[in-house]
Each structure stands twice: as structure tokens, then as C-alpha cells.
Design goal:
The chain is an all-alpha fold. Helices cover 70% and strands 1% of the residues.
Length: 300
Amino acid sequence: MSANNNLDLFAEMTGVATDVDRLFDLLLQVPSDARADLYKAMRHSAIGGGKRLRPLLVVATARLFNVDQSFALRAGTAVEALHVYSLIHDDLPCMDDDNLRRGKPTAHVAFDEATAVLAGDALHALAFELLTDQATHPDPFVRAEMASCLAKAAGPSGMAGGQMMDLAAEDASFDLQTVTRLQQLKTGALIAACVEIGAILGKLPEEGRKGLRGYANDVGLAFQIADDILDVEGDEEKAGKALQKDADAGKETFLSLMGADRAKEQAQMLVDQAKAHLHGFGEQADLLRAIAEFSVERDR
């Protein structure tokens, strides 16, 4: 990726992150009643930190169809709310038992387990409240389709199913095909939903979404392979979380199954394939291309 594209991507990421934080700040004003700690826990987990890759994908895809950026940002913030809910719950002692996320204490450490569970539940609900709000899009059919898309990505055929497989991985030996399926559900489903929601905002018919779906599938897998590499070769301070936990738990990963060199080659092949899926779009898809490159070039 050229220096110019790097600079453009950094500016886009920073702009979207700022806008998402601003919207969370407005939506999560702390009330002066007994719910205060719930809102504080939601704010602690949702505001600041993170790459905001998912809302950026919504914005980048919606931009292909000249969608009002305010609609795309609200939809992207909804996806981010769902993503943050999943992180809060994944970090709980009954799941991955992590103490650090995005460079700060996880929600159950900063508050307590019960508050963390409720904060995750409330962010899950907020995602659908945002998507079904008329301010996110005036067309009720668009709002309904976005909500359906996100629900599928969050459920047993998406993140929840992938997390169940991830828990089972501690007591099983998964082959490459099973690990790929696990990551397509746990990580890839929400990334795919981001691109799909951008297309829904643009009112692109189902039959016109094949290329974008191929792009999203390849980027999702490339992103996870890069995550597995960073888990072994990365810097904990940059990552803002504990590393090498999969290896310590005896879980199979893309890296353990393929080896570092082959995993890196596979990730780059997926990036090239993802960009090829965008051949029908011109320069307006450059941000999506840059995101694909970033998915494997990042250091956190």
C-alpha cells in the first residue's frame, strides 16, 4: 500500500473513530439514578480504543452508493455496539477470562461481573435500537433488513456459534477446515455484516452483492489469520490485551496448523482475492481496498 493510501486510511479511521465516540457519548449519558454504574460500564467499554474497523467498513461500503454519511455512521455505531457487547462477554471469567482490553481493564475488572453482563446486554440492545431508529434511515424496509442481517451475524449461525466452537476448542483438536469455520462465524460473520449493511443502506439488490460478499469473506479470514500471527509475534502493549492465550490453552489456530510462512502467504492471497472482488468498482472502492491491506499489515 502506498504512503498516500496509508495516510488516507489513517485519516478515515481517525475520523470514523471520532464520530463513533461522539455518538456513543450522546447515547450513553450517565443518569443520576441507580443505573449509573451500568452506563459507566457501557461507556468504559465502548468509548475510546479499538480500531473501529467495523464501522469503517460500513461507511466505506455505503460510500460506494452515495449514502448519506450520517446514516452510515449510525449503522456503523450499531455494529460497533454489538461488537463491544461481544468483547465484554468474551472477556468474562466464564469465557476467555481476560483482564485487559483495548489497553484498559476489562468491564468485569473495572466494575464487577454482574455489571459487565448487563453492560453487554444493554449494548446488544442498543445496536438494534439504533438500526431500527428512523434517524438511521427513513425507509422502514432498509431498517428491517439491516436489523435482520445483524441478528443473523450475532446468533448461533454467527458470533455466538463461533464462540461456542471456540470454547469447545479447548478440549478438542480442530483441523484447518474446522478452525476456518470457527473463525468465519466468530469473527467473519460480523465483518461480513458490516459490508452487507453498507450495501443495504445503498439499496443494492441481493443479486448485486456477490462481489461485496466475496470481499467481506476474504477480508474476514485474512484479518483472523493476521490476529493469530500477532498473538504469537505481536507486542502486548500495542495490542492492548494479553497475547498467546490460544497457545497456552492448547487451541489450534491458523498459525499452529499452517506455520508462520504459509499463514502469511495465505493472508496476503486472501487480501489480493478480496481486492479482485471489487473489480466492478472504480476509485470509490479504494478505501475498501486499503482496509483489506490494513487487515494484514496492522500491528495490533
